[in-house]
Amino acid sequence: METLTKYPKLVVSSIALVIFFIMANLSFANLVTFEEEYTYQASEYDSKFSCKALALEQLKRLLLEKLGTYLESQTEVRNFRLTKDQIVVLSAGIVKTEIIDERWDGVVFYLKAKIQADPGEIAKSIESLHQDRQKTRELEKIKKQADELLKEAERLRNELKVAGAGKSERARKDYDETVKRLSAVDLVTIGTSFYLSASYKDAIDAFDKAIKLDRQYAEAYLHRAMAYDMLGQSWQGIKDSDKAIELNRKFGMAYFVRGVCYYGLKKYPPAISNFDKAIGLEPNFAGAYNMRGLAYRGFGNYEQAFMNFDKAIEAIELRTDSHSLPRHLPFYNRGLAFMDLDDKQKAIRDFSKAIELNPKVALEAYDYRSLIYLALGKWQEAIGDLDMYIKLNPKNSNIYIRRSFAYIALGDMTQASWDAYTRLGDLRRAKGDWDKASESYRQAIRDCDKGIELNPKSVSSYYNRGLCYLNLKDYRQAIEDFNKTIELNPKKGDAYHNLGLAYRRLGDHQEGNKNIQIAAKLGSSEAQKFLNGELSVDYWLKKGTEYLGSKKYKDAITAISKAIELAPDFGEAYAMRGFTYVTIGDKEKAREDLKTAAKLGVEQAQDALKSAGVKWEP
Q: Around 501, how many Cα atoms within 13 Å sit in the side-chain half-sphere?
């Protein structure tokens, strides 16, 4: 992987938990900005609150319309075959409106706002939302509510203009309540946007404000229940679900969410009771069947568990599911149940189907299927699944150990040992212990030497040894091994990719780029990412900073983590991630990252640890 010879200047401080500034020359050219202004003429029945609420609603619609028109012309979004109205609905759950200026003189309310977004990231989010029909329907429902309330506000406003003395007081009260409800719907839209970006505390804050404006808004309680459950506060989620059901006894989704909360607490009977009610109201609710199957599995009633998983699968296959459960889930969960009963073949069948339906998401399916293959002595199949798991999630050290066992069973001691020692080296490097990491890489090299001695045409031994030399920054030796790998296997794209990186690190960018381009043509995903700019520290730090600016903390952590993978000795990146963990309340991970940053000489991290009374070793 490519790292920068000189990292961007990064300043990290913690005045209000986390403030980050990246050096001025970092470009945000990918961002597009749309600005609009709106002037609302108050009637004698309007207040400052109603003027702002109605102006903001109209302004958001203008901004989303502009964004929708722009996105409709972009290739990535055009390929989704969505109408502009659909794009606008989905975008409302992704982007946030920022007010730039507002003025009120008692007669006219002036408002100016903007939307700023990365089209590529929005395209990815739209694709994800479009595939999740449940979330899409929630956004469509919110949009419909806003449309109806806006029309009702306009109707009441007109009615007030012509109302007689006896009628105006009631109409004015209805008008005020309608505007409040419209503002509540807007806050639920904001909360949903935070929820979808995993900023659950911010989502709850928005839902709190919505409920204060409209205490009869069942959907606001439901959305807050979901956010509480995601934070592990299931009892609070149950209370909010209770309130949503009290307001709407036929609210199937509220029963479902309450059941999910009980399931999270391992209270299976009340969970099943709630799923029963959800299914009674919505007989084709695949998600409720799926969760009821998990609950029955929870206390060992496998007959009922299988029946419910089968019903979920039937609803999906017949396309009658009322909430569009991800298609792979009931197969994956049924596979777990078969695994519990040691029915290996049926478990493999279901895990295989889950992978077929969603190979990028069904990570655990590869994990569990590999365990079954190991138990059956199917070593190559197990290694294939573990390879796929590592490709999707390279940070799970247990997976490398398991793959080592499979290689040992095949008699490939060189590969087994290389797996163990290189992973150990990676872990030590990530902790900043370069001396011990180097020791692990050198032991892996010695194992590769033995493999080559036993088999001079061993492609994996040359390639793996080249990777170790690359980690040790012995680029000339790495080049020699990658060239030998290519000589033995000219179609190994990753060998060209790493050969290119070695040349680049020696300063020969022309030769390096030539090999990376060959790798990309041969299908190397790493080379393709590199050519797209996705394998540079600078790229991921910019992404992390953008996510922080929009309070998408989970996405920010993912981006910063990728920068750390590329540059394990970049202390400021650890500090940046550490302070982000502080923001979301994960003190343990924050402490570990700040300790690493402190060891690497980041003063802001050292000061933060000192002020918190946390010791660290220089």
A: 30
Tokens linked to 397? 């050290």
Of 199, 243, 193, 235, residue with least CA distance to 219 = 243
Largest separation between any pair of C-alpha atoms in the chain = 101
Give tens-digit pLDDT for 244-279: 999 999 999 999 999 999 999 999 999 999 999 999
DSSP designation for 6: S
Token pair, residue 542, equals: 């910019």
Closest CA to 563 of 534, 542, 537, 544: 537
Q: If we measure between CA atoms, which residue out of 520, 522, 527 comes closest to residue 501?
A: 527
Domain assignment of residue 602, given as a range: 10-25+536-611
DSSP, res 514: H
- What pLDDT, on a 0 to 100 scale, did the predictor assign at position 23? 29
Residue 606's H or E segment, with its range, is helix 603-611
Query: Comparing C-alpha atoms, which of 554, 556, 533, 552 is closest to residue 543?
Result: 556
**Nearest C-alpha neighbor of 584 from the set 543, 549, 550, 553:** 553
Number of domains in the chain: 1
Long-range pairs for 335-342 at CB < 8 Å and ≥24 separation? 335/365, 335/368, 335/369, 336/297, 336/368, 337/293, 337/297, 337/302, 337/305, 337/306, 337/309, 339/368, 339/372, 340/297, 340/302, 341/302
pLDDT-derived band at 208 (thresholds 50, 70, 90) equals very high
Of 153-162, 345-354, 368-377, give the lowest mean pLDDT range: 153-162
Q: Is residue 113 one of the residues assigned to a domain? A: no
**From CA 66, how far away is CA 70, in angstroms rounded?**
6
Contact 36, 72 (CB under 8 A): no
- The CATH number assigned to the domain holding 573 equals 1.25.40.10
DSSP 13: E
Residue 541 domain-assigned (yes or no): yes
Q: What is the pLDDT of residues 22-61, one digit of tens each?
A: 223 333 335 788 899 999 998 888 889 989 999 898 888 8
C-alpha torsion 604→610→611→614, nearest 10: 120
In a domain, 605, yes or no: yes
Percent of the chain past pLDDT 90, that is, above it, reads: 39
Bridge partners, 495 (sequence order): none
| DSSP string of 391-426, one letter each residue | HH-TT-HHHHHHHHHHHHHHT-HHHHHHHHHHHHHH
3-state secondary structure 152-205: HHHHHHHHHHHCCHHHHHHHHHHHHHHHHHHHHHHHHHHHHHHHHCCCHHHHHH
Establish if 598 belongs to a structural domain: yes
